[in-house]
Amino acid sequence: MRTDVPEQALTVDILGSSALWKGHETLLASALAAAAAAEGKAGSVSLMLGDDASIAALNQQFRGKNGPTNVLSFPPAAGGENEPGFLGDIALAAETIVEEANFQGKRFENHAAHLVVHGFLHLIGYDHMKPADAEAMEARERAILVSIGIEDPYA
């Protein structure tokens, strides 16, 4: 599924393999569009809406870690022959996100939107390894999410 978001600033190519994602594609594409607009970015992103098994395989292959994680971000390879304007790949694990949302008392779609924004910010260089960087990244996430009507995920 290819989703062009308003003003053609961002194209989102959605690949889905889990039924848990059905009906949530538009919200996730809108969250990505809001993140791109807030950060002044245009181009395309591939979004894999996977299940825990598919994300666990990617996590092992690319990070050497066992098991699924909620979101993985893959910026374009430096010096690679990527399509112009390609910003990278984001992969989400449905069952992990459902479990986290239930544990945190959040709606699945809001938590997924938060994680896709989080993943997008990683694509464009944000990180959260140092406290100051984490604060800056979380502030951007909050601002982007509130712009699409999703409450503070850290409240």
Automatic annotation (TrEMBL):
Give the matching Pfam families.
YbeY
Q: Per UniProt, where does Zn(2+) bind?
A: H118, H122, H128
Instruction: Tell where it localizes.
Output: Cytoplasm
Cofactor descriptive note: Binds 1 zinc ion.
Name its co-factor(s). Zn(2+)
Q: Which GO terms describe its biological process?
A: rRNA processing
One GO CC annotation, please?
cytoplasm
Q: Return the broad EC class.
A: hydrolase
Q: What is this protein called?
A: Endoribonuclease YbeY
What species was this sequence derived from?
A: Terricaulis silvestris
Lineage, broadest ranks: Bacteria, Pseudomonadati, Pseudomonadota, Alphaproteobacteria, Caulobacterales
Recorded name of the encoding gene: ybeY
